[in-house]
Amino acid sequence: MLHLSRRNFTFSQLEEQVAEATRWLAREVMTLLLEQVDIELMEARDTRKWRLVHAKTRSILTLFGEQRNRRRFYRNTETGETAFLLDDALGLSSGQRVSDRLKERMAWLATEVSYRRAAEILASWVPGVSAMSVWKAVQELGEAERRRAAESRRRVFERGEVPAGAQKAEELGVEADGVWIRARKARPEDAGFLEIKLGVAYEGRSENGRLKNRQAVAGVMEAEAFWEETVAQLGERWDLSVVRRIWLGGDGERWIKAGTAWLPGAVFRLDRDHLRRALLEALGSDREAYERVAEGIAQGDWNAVEEGLREAWVRATRRGKARVRRLEQYLRHNWEGIIARSCAPQTGQMLKLCCILLSKEGRPVKRTKSIPGSIKFKAALELIKGEKTLVELSREYGVHPNTLLKWKQTLLEKGAELFEPPNKEQEYQKRIRDLEQLLGKKEVEIALLKNFLGQGS
């Protein structure tokens, strides 16, 4: 650096030299400190029990680069056990090559960018970081977190230990949802899809609209394990013995409603956004039926809802009748969650969590490339032939089984139109119907916001 200061140089050159000198100095200080600690451990050991064998150099990647130091190796004269007393004192495992603090930085960056990009960023001040080392760090931290969560569940549900949550709250809100994502197949018979279960708990909203004391839970696991882990994590934060009511919100999936068996004082409430979507999909083009069903829901009158659905079914087309029937089953299955009243406002937090989960490198979710119509036709035709099972075709074409069923239904209902001569008048009429249907949905949404969603808020 003195040599550099005696000739022409730029600020960037000086900055880089100072940074490298600082990292070198930090490594030298660490080497001196570790050597001193190792000497103290050697002098303080039980010499009759631990016999010094030799010294060995260890290399570990730290926040300021590769750190190399020599530490002493011992053998237990009574049991034959061997150990590096310095590693044991510092909490370093035998195969650890990256420091815990650097692992945390790696994992944090890997949630925002790709492994390769994270390595490039870290390598600018920590030489020696590779994409593979970032990947390994994320895997190790993930495995450690899984072990911690499993141990937490065992303490509560196997050993009967009560979590020591200190925060007090009489009511909590819990929202849960599932997200299906494409996954790498471990075996040929795997479907290639995984459901990530998500949950978020909170005490309410603060004055600026943020969720108070938010606690998130996520994992790829069965419903029982998910709710056990949720209870264990909530118990570590809140004193569940004083919680009188938990409002459990979701889209009505069976595994979500099953959470009432684990959460103390839990009452399920169907998420309003999912309810609104179900109503629009089935009754969006029938404003009269929509308003009647919505009014029955607002009043908690199942008979009125059933009567409105019956009228909608009579007026609907063949495809519309099927949608009305599915809506009736959906409302009947979730009726108790629909009429339940909650003091906690609907937050829509699960939709945000799902978008974050499905986003790539922290950017907004983008639509996937559309599948050509020829591929859809071929897949639907193979499904109709029945030569291959639904699961086999799902794996072959890389789509969800429900998507294949929709393609099949579309082919059966609209296949005859392929042989009809083109008719401009019919195209115009279809366009008009589509626009009228779109206008009707918008009017229904406005009516819903004004009349239905305002009640019970």
Written description of the protein model:
The protein has 457 residues and is of the alpha/beta class. Helices cover 53% and strands 14% of the residues. The strands form two sheets. It has a five-stranded mixed β-sheet, sandwiched between helices. The model is unreliable at 357-369 and 451-457 (pLDDT under 50).
Structure, briefly:
The protein contains 18 helices and eight strands. The protein is an alpha/beta fold. The termini are far apart.
- How many separate helices? 18
Q: What is the tally of beta strands?
A: 8
Distance between the termini: 68 Å
In what range is the share of β-strand residues? 5-15%
The biggest beta sheet reads: 5 strands, mixed
Instruction: Report the helical percentage.
Output: 40-55%
Question: Could you state the order of secondary-structure elements as H and E?
Answer: HHEEEHHHHEEEHEHEHHHHHHHHHH
Q: Give the averaged pLDDT, no decimals.
A: 80
